[in-house]
Specification:
The chain is mainly alpha-helical. The protein is built from 9 helices and no strands.
């Protein structure tokens, strides 16, 4: 218990993890006000992760208050899952984060050099790099980041928030696709038939 409790009240670590995970948003443009809502939900998820992991065990406090008695570290509050899978969750989170950053970085590089160049009159449907397989690599990356956080530190707030974050990015992806169809017409429709939305060869 003492080792686990040493993770808490490290507000420098809370700030560090929040900044690191939030930095992924720098690689996504915000053209419309609606685009900011999924980003805000993602930031709230990251903050919940960082605070539960290194700040205070909010879930444990809330559940203890509701139950009317003090609770020990356990599943869905405190350092969750460590008693069941050890540090496997941490390693899986690192793997998810590394994969997510590669996907986000590759997506940003290709879209920056092709679609965003439309300001100079040269914008086009991006079909290179990760865009050969999926249409929304940044959003796939965000979902991987959040799944990794859950695998390492699954708490009730995060499990409740995750479906909403995923739904908001799904909704935004569909809206962006409609915008692209209006902009590029048949070319984008054909591109959609050859690619998946989030996961290569799956969905």
């Amino acid at each position: 218990m003492e080792t686990l409790q040493s993770h808490y009240h490290q507000w420098g670590a809370v700030l560090f993890f929040t900044v690191v995970y939030a930095a992924a948003l720098l690689f996504v443009p915000f053209y419309k006000k609606m685009d900011r809502k999924p980003a805000t939900a993602y930031l709230a998820f990251v903050l919940a992760f960082a605070i539960e992991m290194h700040g205070i065990p909010m879930s444990m406090y809330l559940i203890s208050w509701f139950a009317g008695k003090s609770l020990p570290e356990g599943i869905l509050w405190g350092h969750t899952l460590i008693s069941q899978i050890g540090y496997t969750g941490m390693y899986l989170n690192i793997l998810c984060a590394a994969t997510a950053l590669l996907i986000i970085g590759n997506g940003w590089y290709n879209i920056y050099h092709q679609y965003w160049s439309k300001e100079s009159g040269k914008g086009k449907v991006v079909k290179t790099g990760v865009y050969k397989y999926i249409r929304h690599p940044q959003y796939t990356g965000f979902m991987l980041l959040t799944v990794g956080m859950i695998l390492e530190w699954a708490t009730l707030p995060m499990l409740i928030m995750w479906p909403f974050v995923a739904w908001m990015y799904y909704r935004l992806a569909r809206k962006e696709e409609r915008d692209m169809v209006r902009e590029f017409g048949e070319e984008y429709i054909m591109y959609m038939k050859k690619t998946k939305r989030f996961i290569p060869f799956v969905v």
